[in-house]
């Protein structure tokens, strides 16, 4: 069984990524850390706590950075709603966040089990960058580092920048410059993971999970202009799915550099697939869609059948 630590900004697709991790017998979720991103930290942290209680998870949630390293905070509330979960209102969680800052939680958790923790980041990379600055050995201690962010074609925050990278490019620069090999799930890959009406049909019958979370969240998320035609892209679940079943993805070694100074290109992940480039990342390029949705549906079925 793999042990996963998820750094996130819930967020609708983050909520689905948490459910996938919880519902997968191949994974043990050892912690969830929150960061400002889709909405402010004052929302992402309660959302993470409420989601874990809704799913019936017993896992610590640690609150992280409330703003990017250098820049003014931006949000994606037009995509995820003012609360981060569309129109869904979950009960307020009974649990409190872990007493540690997310940065210390990440360092402590990985340091306690070197070579064992899969660190997966599906929000802006502020916490991960701060953790690397505080404890550079994090890069050698993780089992693997998987990130949802970037693109090798075009962005969604701007024509050049994907949201998670564009929201905090300086942090992303620190993360991609560290001596590890991030597995990057950019938009080119995650736009292959669309919750079409056929996919959503498979969630029918999942009771409270479907009625109170999946359906209203996906209705809201899918109504966004960028997703109307083919259904919303479930970006963050792709990164978690790679930890469970890497064989579902094609990955290619590449050089990824984060643009931090471009007037029009700030936050762009400049990706060079040339064989002679000094590769620093594995970039996901293709997804086996049927098997991916099988994985998600089966995980959601397990979550639905064990919810409180
Ligand atoms: C990423 O940005 C957020 O809005 C999503 O949760 C995802 O992590 C996609 O660009
Ligand atoms: Ca996210």
TrEMBL record:
GO cellular component entries: cytosol
Matching InterPro entries: Inosine/uridine_hydrolase_dom, IUNH, Ribo_hydro-like
Pfam families: IU_nuc_hydro
One GO-annotated biological process of the protein: purine nucleoside catabolic process
Domain Inosine/uridine-preferring nucleoside hydrolase positions: 4-294
Keyword terms: Glycosidase, Hydrolase
GO molecular function, one term: purine nucleosidase activity
Name of the featured protein: Purine nucleosidase
């Amino acid at each position: 069984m793999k042990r996963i630590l998820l750094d996130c900004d819930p967020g609708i697709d983050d909520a689905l990524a948490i459910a996938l991790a919880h519902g997968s017998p191949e994974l043990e979720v050892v912690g969830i850390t929150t960061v400002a991103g889709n909405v402010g930290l004052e929302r992402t942290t309660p959302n993470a706590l409420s989601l874990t209680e809704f799913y019936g998870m017993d896992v610590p949630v640690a609150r992280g950075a409330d703003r990017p390293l250098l820049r003014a905070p931006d949000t994606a509330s037009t995509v995820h709603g003012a609360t981060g979960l569309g129109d869904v209102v979950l009960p307020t969680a009974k649990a409190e966040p872990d007493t540690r800052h997310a940065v210390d939680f990440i360092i402590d958790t990985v340091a306690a089990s070197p070579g064992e923790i899969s660190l997966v980041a599906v929000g802006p990379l502020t916490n991960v960058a701060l953790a690397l600055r505080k404890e550079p050995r994090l890069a050698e201690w993780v089992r693997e580092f998987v990130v949802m962010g970037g693109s090798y074609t075009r962005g969604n925050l701007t024509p050049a920048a994907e949201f998670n990278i564009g929201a905090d490019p300086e942090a992303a620069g620190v993360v991609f410059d560290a001596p590890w090999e991030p597995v990057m799930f950019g938009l080119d890959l995650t736009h292959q993971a669309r919750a079409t009406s056929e996919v959503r049909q498979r969630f029918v019958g999942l009771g409270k999970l479907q009625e109170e979370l999946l359906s209203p969240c996906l209705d809201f998320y899918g109504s966004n202009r960028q997703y109307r035609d083919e259904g919303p892209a479930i970006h963050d679940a792709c990164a978690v799915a790679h930890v469970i079943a890497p064989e579902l993805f094609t990955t290619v070694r590449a050089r990824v550099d984060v643009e931090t100074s471009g007037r029009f290109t700030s936050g762009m992940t400049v990706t060079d697939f040339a064989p002679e480039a000094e590769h620093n990342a594995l970039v996901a390029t293709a997804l086996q869609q049927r098997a991916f949705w099988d994985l998600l549906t089966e995980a959601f079925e397990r979550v639905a059948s064990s919810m409180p």
